Amino acid sequence: MSEGVVRSLGSGRFLDWRALDADGAAGGLLICWDKRSLEIVDWEEGQYSLSCRFKNVEDGAVWMFTGVYGPFTKEAREGLWEELGAVRGIWDEPWCLGGDFNSTLYQGERSRQGRITPNMRRFLVSPSWLDKFSGVIQRRLPRPVSDHFPILLEGGGLRRGPSPFRFENMWLKVEGFLDLIRSWWREIEVRGTASYRLAAKTKELKQKLKVWNREVFGNLEGNKRAALQQVDYWDGVESERSLSLEETESKKEAKESYKKWVMLEESHWRQLSREVWLKEGDKNTGFFHRMANAHRNNNSLDRVKIDGVWLEEDQDVRQGIANAFHQRLSEDVGWKADIEGIQLDQISQQEAESLEIPFSENEIHSALMEMSGDKALGRMVLLWRFGKALGISKGGRLTWEILDPLVSWGGLYKLMAKVLANRLKRVLNKVVAPTQNAFVMGRQILDASLIANEVIDSWQKRKEKGLICKLDIEKAYDSINWKFLLKTLHKMGFGSKWLGWMWSCISTAKFSVLVNGVPAGFFPSSKGLRQGDPLSPYLFVLGMEVLDALIRRAVAGGYLSGCSIKANKEHLTHLSWILLWFKAASGLRINLDKSEIIPVGVVEEIEEMAVELGCRVGSLPSHYLGLPLGAPHKASSVWDGVEEKVRRRLARWKRQYISKGGRITLIRSVLASMPIYHLSLFRMPKLVARRLDKVQRDFLWGGGSEERKAHLIKWEAICEDKSKGGLGLRKLVLLNKALLGKWIWRFAYDKDDLWKQVITAKYGQEGHGWRAKRAHGTIGVGVWKEIWKESDWCWDNMGFIVGKGSKINFWTDAWCKGTRLSQNFPHLYAMASLRNATVEEMWDQNFGQGGWNLRFLRDFNDWELEMIGNLLHVLRDYKPSMEEDSVCWKGGRNGKFRVKEAYSLVTSPNDIVFPSRCIWVDSVPTKVAFYAWEATWGRVLTLDRLQKRG
Predict the structure, then answer these.
(1) Which one, 828, 839, 883, 906, has least CB within 10 Å?
(2) Which Gene3D superfamilies match (predicted)?
């Protein structure tokens, strides 16, 4: 590399540089900098990298930069990693690396053809570097000449403007804060309606909070630093002489002050980070800080492309985004199809009236408690605590006339929408067809995935042809037509008052778009539902019921044939007409780019069919509702996505940021829960379970670091309950059994759900309809066959509740005292003449008020009479009724299945006695309790233990 070539790049006499020469046409690195900004301290050359140690001219901070040109072969890349490790071994400053690594972090970064993608060329930075240069943005530039895309790491911080007011949860921890708010509230005098007074007083309260935060509470970081300086001051004085009693008290106050500001700082960054799974008190402020920065960086925009034009100026970006959203949320004026002729199910008049009764305080309080404490709850709790002072309580009832004007005030709208949503979901199953499972009480979205996989399984085993249509609705919440929605509700029997409330909720929304934390625009909408609104999912499901009704009508008329479709091109044409009509009525359009048709078996003219519908052709295995569809469920590859998701999440968390207490919480609430959706329907191969258990185990003890850390306590012990000496974590194989067992329970407990009808039609049922038959032969080797394997242990823990008794066997079912009479009275069972008789058949209504008519093969001997007496004594508390028979879960809360209790049943019994109550105390930080837990097990790494380990 010649100096003349480098000088041609610009910066004149202020340019300095270092270079690593190319090897022929491969490799080669050049690092340039402006000497007015950076001063080079040292540099290191390697075979594949060039590292420079810089010092900022402005503030003297030292940091590292490494340019990388990675080798192509796996063996040579090991040399690159060794080079970088050596650089980190000699320098320990904040580090930034950039270049062509020729390596991927995740499977998705490699193209389908295995070629290098732009993701292999990137900047990587250490967390300490990101702390020093927060707000940097990495973006790809155009490539007018080269076959490589230039990657730009742009600094200078994120663009900022006036930020919206945010309630800080840490304020609630300040002594006297609530008393201060109460006094302010009483001082503010406003006249008008109750709702106007509430809005006006809250607005005034917000202004007072701003002033108090600025002038009294002060700068959080500055206050913490000042408190620490006081502690250092008294430590210095104490090192020279003894402190007087008054000075000792001053030092104690300084320490308490510092502790207070550290606690408030942690609360502040936890709220900003949105990592609400990790509780406060474990000194995880560094982690919260970096996660908040990560969210801010991910959400930042330095430029945007709208209608083919790149916008880069701050004002242009904000205005362009605001205009784009305004246009998206504006209804097109034009003809709309009428749904008057569509037949929809209706709620009863009594149910409609129950939706419109006045709101009670208990109802609103329950909704409030369901809301997230780290989002809107701070403000809501604050307002609720002063509910009586607000002047809106009238004998425990709140009328809509009081609350209606507040729907446009965002602070209270979510609370009111939550109350309305809680009412609406009670009647949703009365008007939503069984084919819709999402957001309907008593139904699960997993039902749809089970049905789809079982249908495909039947097609494949019978070698039938079939066609799957996966349709995606484009920007669904933003597109739905308001008048269509209200017509739908009207046809479903909702009252005029309820319709008025819904209109107020959807039509009064005004939007402002946060661009880099700065509000842009303020505009109304004329279509669509609010994102994050508690009502929106339920209203959308009701709107989709119209499409379901259209499809049912087409099936009834022979234009579609449901699951028995034979890949008929004419049927696809009819489906496309239905979708076009539905779009004309509702405004909801199918996103053809994300939709596909998937053939099952050899389907002729599949490409022509795709053209007819306007979408692409897919193939099995695929995904549906986030779960595998038509995949070999025993294959480990089904779980590749889950494993990668877990590892991606771990890549965001580093050992030095999260305490061990925090890691426990993370594993329990995040990592262990990530596979649960899959575990609830598919059996996890033991190999995959061992790998994921190892990921959790390594993270607990090492926090994701590369170096191996000592695992002080066996994983089997860790997965025990805390009362048994464990940490309450769960082994995935056993959790999988418990989750699959829930289907066995649901088959017996649910009445006529669609998924149960499908399983019954495919496999048949036995035991008076409580159980599905076992799958035999080539038919029935799909998902359900694996679920059925959990039947034995589930039925060992299930019993019956006698109603009519027509579906419960008298001798062989566990209905009396939770056990089988054939087990408790084996001698009498052997003598019974009707061993398969039902409870109903053994009850004789002709005995006065009814009685048990026990029938045996012979008369009893004298020594057998006591057995009969004992049996009749047990039976005296039972008699059939007019209700339906049902099942119960033995030992379960209210007789219902719970995964937690099922998990404890499939785990091995453990009689260990452990002093858990003395360790896991709420007021003790988790990381302290974790150390006490290790000590109780006798596994603390003391000096002698370290010496034994070498």
Answers:
(1) 883
(2) Endonuclease/exonuclease/phosphatase (3.60.10.10)
Query: ∠ CA(502), CA(505), CA(509), 5° rounding?
Result: 145
Residue 254 near residue 231, CB atoms below 8 Å: yes
The per-residue pLDDT for range 779-823, each reduced to its tens digit, is 545 789 899 999 999 999 999 999 999 999 999 999 988 889 999
Nearest to residue 119, comparing CAs of 96, 85, 148?
148
pLDDT digit string, tens, across residues 428-464: 999 999 989 889 988 899 999 999 999 888 888 888 8
Q: Phi, psi (5° rounding) for residue 554?
A: -65, -40
Gap between the Cα atoms of 7 and 847, Å rounded: 111
- What the block records as the tokens of 208 is 């007072």
For the chain, how long is the longest CA-to-CA vector?
119
pLDDT, residue 582, reads 94
3-state helix, strand, coil in the chain (%, to 5): 50, 15, 40
CA–CA separation, 647 and 640 (whole Å): 11
**Cβ-based neighbour number of residue 719 at 10 Å:** 21
Q: Per-residue pLDDT tens for 455-514? A: 888 888 888 888 889 999 998 889 999 999 999 999 999 999 999 999 999 998 888 888
Measured CA to CA in angstroms, residue 498 lies from 350, 360, 419, 424, 489 at distances of: 13, 16, 13, 10, 9
Q: How far apart are CA 696 and CA 700, in angstroms?
A: 6
Q: 10 Å Cβ neighbour count for 78?
A: 11
Q: What are phi and psi of 573, to 5 degrees?
A: -60, -45
Measured CA to CA, the distance from residue 82 to residue 65 in angstroms comes to 17
Q: What is the pLDDT of residue 852?
A: 87
Question: What is the SS3 string spanning 870-914?
Answer: HHHHHHCCCCCCCCCCEEEECCCHHHCCCHHHHHHHHCCCCCCCC
HSE-CB for 383 with a 13 A CA cutoff: 25
Using CA atoms, how far apart are residues 281 and 404, in angstroms rounded to an integer? 41
Contact 811, 837 (CB under 8 A): yes
The Cα 502–Cα 486 span in angstroms is 8
From residue 103, alpha-carbon distances to 99, 325, 706 in Å are: 11, 38, 18
Beta carbons within 8 Å of 37's beta carbon, 6+ residues apart: 56, 57, 58
Identify whether the C-beta of residue 49 lies closer than 8 Å to the C-beta of residue 83: yes
Higher pLDDT, 427 or 668: 427
Q: pTM of the predicted model, to two decimals?
A: 0.76
The CATH fold assigned to 3-154 is: Deoxyribonuclease I; Chain A (3.60.10)
